[in-house]
């Protein structure tokens, strides 16, 4: 939606894809509104790249925005966009950048080569048992030396992901058997025996740095940091706050301002090194002692970009739109401002309103929305695909995200207070399995968590 | 003989002539038929003397016609002769050639395979005053006289397995084996032990079967014939045929017929004529040693004289084989030779040679057998190597042998002893240190004399190891950048559908991704699209650093098969190679290996004389150099039919070479890719103890079309897939394309015999 | 008791099923050489290895793919105006009139005769492992169900919850869902036959077998 708005604002024509199941959604309505009926194409499956190119060719599109997920971090999709016979512009970093940073191990190695801090442990798949044991021993000793009691080591399949093939080890005696188990698991499931061994870090905060770069990869700026530590059990973000810490408003056990400065500095260093050339996010974890470690780089625009935009000022002006910047820069536009032109003002909070039950492991809730309303404010931005004039059936195939709300306040205190005020104003009714009582949302959970945002 | 019987015999002769010549010699046959009809009409009214005269006349007429037709026999007529129900069968031979016999494992159709007959038989004769009883093992396909359950002599895999079993029994009992080859081909069924794999097993075992083997060919139909045909002496009936494929099969391929269509008789005739299948052709080419003359229009059960000839010939052949390897030969060998020159001078039955072989003689027998086959078919390929190359290739092996002997034989042992000794010493020292030093240090520690605490320097180093870039020399970026060689198909901007899309829901893949980065593997279901042989050469066999050898041994058209010259030239031009077999020496990681590969783009990877020769030379090179030997089969459709028996003979030839290599202590590993069918699988490939297949490849004896044609069975669509072959026990593993190199290296380290240089 | 004769007559009055062939994905359509009234056949061969009659080709990203007839029938109408044109996914291309087979008629009638256990909500359904195993090994009709027995697993939004059967005791006679496909609320999942009615049901089947002539 925000992409279509950005296109419309920039004066580009666009086409929008939908599938059979979601053709009734708000985003399709909006597409029809902004671009006319002919700009909507029905395809069989969002995950089928062939469908996208087929429609793009038919509509004579010149560029493709991959959205937030699916193809945004798929370097092959980007490569195909660029190198097919009728080539198009991929709105995102160049494919080789995506490939280099898309691989976590590779990212870690690039970071280390630049002296950017990463989680202690191996930076390449380990195959040899003796070598692995050595690393594990060092890690335990290292944690002990740092005064961490009950240190833990993570053993994971290097080819795995999404929580598969990861185990924690508490002491060296266990290590060997766990290592073997993971190695065999990896061999069976991923056909690669490589194993990674890392320190297990507890109680960390999840921070992000929003980086924006020009095509050509020579000019880079950042739009501040975000704190995305409020997450569901499935590690899905629920609330994001910009900036990442509030050293002025809250006390921290470490120099929070310096941490923020360090991670933005490190992020830009890496962006420069790899020739990053679009919008991206550097994800960091910060330990309770204030040590930042680079986790990974998201080579795409993220949903939560808006919360960074809301506190950012270019040349003191309000109204940065990072998606608009992404499209503009992606098409070869110039980055006409420097880091010095960017300033930050206030605190932004982003809420993700989702039909789910936070008390039951955030289990998603299916059903229909019968009523949805909220109090409009000038410090509130809300986007939703839910049509206001009819009952909306939550599609089963995708996550049951209902709305995204961004609240701005001059200070953390005001932002929190406004956040609660907004959440209280939301009217959201629906039914699940035929009963209104069964319908659950996470609004109460969001309100709950607002109280101690950014505290660490 | 009473007249009814005589009439019946004549009637049979007439039907026989009709069956064989049917459509072609209409006038002659009709004339004969008419005369015979007239004779039959007049017969009841004839008185005795007229009857005697008339019988004589009509019988003479029959004999005359038969003799006349005999001179006009075409190869296809011979095919019809051997397949005729009246043709003599193995049972007839057992009853009339041998003196008594016991059939083993058969009572009509109650038999594991009624088309394979096995019997212990005796040849009894009087030499001087003594009666001598010489036992032999008789093995051969039984056609019966048109008995349906005999399946026309088309043996099933388990029939061939039975044959092999009793060959081994004969080896244990140290008695000669007489095999009678009378099969249109093996029954193309994949169930264990597998048509192809069992033939391969037979060949592999017969290669070193330590008793004399005499084979007699009546109908020698390709692979099925080889299953019992690898022999020290190969005799052939004058009206038999020995061919790479049935003429109908050749015609079906030649005419590019679809299943169900039939080739025209003319085309079949023509193919039969071109394939060089007659006894004369085979004698001329050296694939058989001797022809046994049959009566006009072929031997039938009532030709009793023929049995006598046959008996003399097989006894003679056995005598010759035995005496050629015996140390005590003297006059009898001379006499045997003598007889050969002046036929009939001495009856072989009167020369007694004991058929029992000593251990040494058995060794010589095997050597002779190997040489016999090694010398065959050299006329059927073009040796394009320069004179110097040939001299070199003659000399080099000597050098390798000497080198190998020094480095792996002579020098290796003392060095190994030394190393073993040092290792033992180190282990001893370690134990002593542990036993003595440790308790002391422990005590000291307990007494707090020495405090055990890692120094901060060590701590710092450990920390660095955990947080700094490891192996910085490799650069920060360790993404493996695709493959060395990429398929030209990866240059095309198009989507490709996976054949499993319907069942596995695979999405269309973009050709540049599929054929480059994914190495032709569907990311959803793992289906392997066939890749070019170059892909394997460069990405697995390190072809850049390989040395190819014998590239100038060239395929040609030894039978002058019509139109084949042109096709061969086209294949040569298109591939830039001179045969479908590419042999080279290369290194896989640090291990030097010899690779022989059959590449599909060159005439479907078919094997002819040139390919066989190259394969054998490669195996010999690997043996002399003590290298592992890898057969990479990019694809093979079988034996090259246009070369006729010149192709088929590569089955025993190559298998013998492989057997030699394995017996010498080498590692012979086969890797199948795309499609591998027929002869090669049924011999030198299928006999390897280590056979692996690339996923999604097909391995089998005969393709689905041929199976439908010959057996009338419709096979399921995935009948020949590698995973099926694996579950039938035909291959030992399936490898994904991306892992071949890794697995191959692993295999080289974990498998194989004692003579590999790196062991 | 059901009036089978009447039911059969009803079906005989309109013994067809219209099958609408839709484009499976985007691409350019070229119809095969077919016209309304042509007979087409579905997948066949002893291993159903032969695809059905070619209806059209759909070319997307230079990859030309055939669309084959899924069932035997007669072409009713072809949207020839789409020939050579780009179509979106799900566009109707042509319609086939399919004469019901004996098996399909039996299924139709059974749906009326059996006790139907319906889907409570739109989701994916599958059997719990024990039942699944039993069905695979001994075939349907080997599983007896009773009220309150946990039978199925409901899968929606990546979450799985068990579902108990409710209704009369009986054996599973028909299964109407396929694993991995969404079932709308109210659609039948299982056809249950109370054991005392088994013979009646079998009579129904026998009757249809004899009275229904396949085309």
Summed up, what is this model?
Chain B is an alpha/beta fold. Chain B contains 28 helices and 22 strands. In chain C, the strands form four sheets. Chain C has a four-stranded antiparallel β-sheet, with no helix packed on it. Chain C has a four-stranded antiparallel β-sheet with strand order 5-4-2-7, with no helix packed on it.
Can you walk me through this structure?
The complex is a heterotrimer of chains A (456), B (759) and C (215). Chain A has 456 residues and is α+β, with helices and mostly antiparallel strands. Chain A is built from 13 helices and 22 strands. In chain A, strands 12-11-8-9-10-15-21-19 form an eight-stranded antiparallel sheet, with helices on both faces. The longest helix of chain A has 19 residues, at 172-190. The radius of gyration of chain A is 23 Å and the shape is globular. Chain B is α/β, with parallel strands linked by helices and 759 residues long. Chain B folds into four domains: 3-72; 82-318, Alpha-Beta Complex (2-enoyl-CoA Hydratase, Chain A, domain 1); 488-526, no CATH class; 533-750, 2-enoyl-CoA Hydratase, Chain A, domain 1 (Alpha-Beta Complex). Chain B has a seven-stranded mixed sheet with strand order 1-4-5-6-7-8-9, with helices on both faces. Chain B has a seven-stranded mixed sheet with strand order 13-15-16-17-18-20-22. Chain B starts with a helix and ends in a 9-residue tail after the last helix. Chain C is of the alpha+beta class. In chain C, helix 2 (102-113) runs antiparallel to helix 4. The two termini of chain C are 29 Å apart. The interface between A and B is medium-sized, with 35 and 27 residues.
